Automatic annotation (TrEMBL):
Source organism superkingdom: Bacteria
Protein name per the record: Uncharacterized protein
Amino acid sequence: MALDDQTFIWAVKSLSGEISTQMRMVVLKMDGRKATFRYYLDQEPSDFTRERAEVVAVNFDSGMSFALGSLEIEFKHSTEPLGKLDVLDGILFRRWENSACRTDADQ
């Protein structure tokens, strides 16, 4: 099953209030009844970031119109430019970064 509009919108809503400062980009893949959230981070995940991802997973699962067979959470520490990262089936969140992959303003 590809990522349909209704599932995409629900996944974005599931992220509401759960973004941490470590998160660079959040993407989702749907494969049948299997959902995979991937979090691209600027460092290894803290307990706080792991907890936020778990809340997103619970939010997402609770609002689905069908039972998921599995729900996975992946964390990837990467300093690659966001445009070079695998977006799976769709981007749910992408933070602004300058050309140096940082969030401070360009000089």
